[in-house]
């Protein structure tokens, strides 16, 4: 019975990034679905760092993977496991395959292999290893060259097909005749990617491999290695590519940003989960949903088959919806940290106004940085005036009215209601409409002509700042 059809098998998924550069949204979406499937199924999510590319792997890249997953709340149940720390185990399994005759040494030099490929391409054939060193009954192998360390190749079946039912792509069938004998250990004995992956998936009891469709070509090779080791392969789901806004594959080369940059720019982790979930999966027409809803709804049956396109404007819209729905006190705590990064002390921010400021401005912000920009106005000693708004609204004709209004505010009690009464009195006395007074007042007190309700803004600014700025 396969794992997909057995209700008794505990779901175990994995995310297995290579730390050869920063992790971007296309990579993290490949972590999101296995994490969500494990959570939705009451299973386990394992993090494995595939760091066998020693020259390109860096600790900094590992740190960004861990930091990104921590920020998004995608905590693994086990790991991180590092492949470089499992070399003894891989060599043990290689020895097992040697003993059962499933692998063999190949002494073909890189130059000979390149020449073979060139001849095959010139003859319009698929470039592949021709089995020169594959031992067969009745076959005489070439003499072993002196001083050459061989690679070890997997003896791939030559007949039949490799077939699996992919949870995204449906039935896939590859003829074994299409597959050559894969190198699974280098001359120095270090194992190669396709082999390590299979040993890891066996040892970690992985039931479902959910990964990018750039791995589809590896899958038949890996299935054959599973079978050589006497194991049934896991269920596979190969996710379509994420494209950038120009329609190219999302990658570091094509302008993708590290996941942690979205945190720094003020995106909420739950908004990122929501947006990334919709890049290849859907639940009816639901666009905005919570993390809890996503984990309740997620299944492999509703994964999309076509490439998804990243759209920053859509991401900002999703983020704005999540900011709008967030608790004011929770947002205020994040904004306080952002203001401290800009040089404001914790004591200066401890006056209790921040949750009210957040409540007033969150409906018009698509990132937490934009919300912090508004909050700065209420704590800064000076206001940055927008020159165009100033020229347009703070006219010589209105200046005496602003002086009069400032005097009225200075003399009265400080409440939103009292400020509202002072606005009405000033408008009535000077036969003006609301915008005539509200626009220049906003420009002088917060720097721009458009804000939420002017009496609420002035009240939160405080009497001293308002009268000083109006004067």
UniProtKB/TrEMBL annotation:
Keyword Protein biosynthesis: yes
Signal peptide start and end residues: none
UniProt GO MF annotations: ATP binding; glutamate-tRNA ligase activity; tRNA binding; zinc ion binding
Chain ranges passing through the membrane: none
Residue ranges of every copy of the Aminoacyl-tRNA synthetase class I anticodon-binding domain listed in the record: 349-470
Start-end of Basic and acidic residues biased regions: 126-137
Region feature Disordered, mapped onto this chain: 126-148
Amino-acid positions noted as binding ATP in the UniProt annotation, renumbered to this chain: 252
Localisation per UniProt entry: Cytoplasm
EC code: 6.1.1.17
Catalysed reactions listed for this entry: tRNA(Glu) + L-glutamate + ATP = L-glutamyl-tRNA(Glu) + AMP + diphosphate
Residue ranges annotated for the Glutamyl/glutaminyl-tRNA synthetase class Ib catalytic domain, each copy included: 11-317
UniProt keyword annotations, A-Z: Aminoacyl-tRNA synthetase, ATP-binding, Cytoplasm, Ligase, Nucleotide-binding, Protein biosynthesis
Cross-referenced Pfam families: Anticodon_2 (PF19269), tRNA-synt_1c (PF00749)
A Gene Ontology BP annotation from the UniProt entry: glutamyl-tRNA aminoacylation
Residue interval(s) of motif 'HIGH' region: 17-27
Motif ('KMSKS' region): 249-253
Principal place of residence: cytoplasm
One term under GO cellular component: cytosol
Role, per record: Catalyzes the attachment of glutamate to tRNA(Glu) in a two-step reaction: glutamate is first activated by ATP to form Glu-AMP and then transferred to the acceptor end of tRNA(Glu).
Entry's family note: Belongs to the class-I aminoacyl-tRNA synthetase family. Glutamate--tRNA ligase type 1 subfamily.
Assembly and interaction partners: Monomer.
UniProt name for this protein: Glutamate--tRNA ligase
Source organism: Lampropedia hyalina DSM 16112
Organismal lineage: Bacteria, Pseudomonadati, Pseudomonadota, Betaproteobacteria, Burkholderiales
């Amino acid at each position: 019975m396969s794992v997909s059809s057995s209700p008794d098998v505990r779901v175990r998924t994995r995310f297995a990034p290579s730390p050869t550069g920063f992790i971007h949204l296309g990579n993290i979406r490949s972590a999101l679905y296995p994490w969500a499937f494990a959570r939705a199924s009451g299973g386990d999510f394992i993090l494995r760092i595939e760091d066998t590319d020693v020259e390109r792997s860096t600790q900094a890249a590992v740190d960004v993977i861990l930091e990104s997953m921590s920020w998004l709340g995608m905590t693994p149940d086990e790991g991180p496991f590092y492949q470089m720390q499992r070399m003894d185990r891989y060599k043990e399994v290689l020895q097992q395959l040697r003993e059962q005759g499933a692998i063999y040494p190949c002494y073909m030099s890189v130059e000979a292999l390149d020449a073979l490929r060139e001849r095959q391409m010139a003859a319009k054939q698929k470039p592949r290893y021709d089995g020169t060193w594959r031992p067969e009954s009745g076959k005489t192998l070439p003499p072993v060259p002196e001083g050459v360390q061989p690679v070890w190749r997997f003896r791939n079946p030559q007949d039949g097909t490799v077939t699996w039912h992919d949870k995204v792509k449906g039935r896939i069938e590859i003829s074994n005749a299409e597959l050559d004998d894969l190198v699974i250990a280098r001359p120095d004995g270090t194992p190669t990617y396709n082999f390590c992956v299979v040993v890891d998936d066996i040892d970690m009891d992985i039931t479902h491999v959910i990964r990018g469709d750039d791995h589809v070509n590896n899958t038949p090779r890996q299935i054959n290695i599973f079978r050589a080791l006497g194991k049934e392969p896991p269920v596979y789901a190969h996710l379509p590519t994420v494209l950038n806004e120009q329609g190219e594959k999302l990658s570091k080369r094509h302008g993708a940003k590290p996941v942690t940059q979205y945190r720094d720019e003020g995106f909420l982790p739950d908004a990122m989960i929501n947006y990334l979930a919709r890049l290849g999966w859907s639940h009816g027409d639901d666009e905005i949903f919570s993390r809890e809803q996503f984990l309740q709804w997620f299944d492999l049956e509703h994964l999309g088959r076509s490439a998804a396109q990243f759209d920053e404007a859509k991401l900002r819209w999703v983020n704005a919806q999540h900011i709008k729905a967030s608790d004011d006190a929770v947002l205020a705590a994040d904004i306080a940290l952002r203001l401290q990064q800009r040089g404001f002390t914790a004591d200066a921010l401890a006056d209790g106004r921040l949750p009210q400021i957040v409540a007033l401005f969150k409906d018009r912000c698509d990132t937490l940085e934009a919300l912090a920009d508004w909050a700065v106005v209420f704590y800064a000693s000076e206001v940055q005036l927008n020159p165009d708004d100033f020229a347009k609204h703070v006219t010589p004709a209105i200046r005496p009215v602003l002086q009069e209004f400032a005097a009225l505010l200075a003399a009265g009690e400080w409440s939103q209601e009292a400020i509202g009464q002072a606005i009405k009195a000033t408008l009535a006395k000077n036969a003006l409409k609301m915008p005539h007074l509200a626009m220049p007042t906003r420009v002088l007190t917060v720097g721009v002509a458009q804000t939420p309700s002017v009496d609420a803004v002035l009240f939160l600014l405080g009497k001293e700042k308002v009268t000083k700025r109006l004067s």
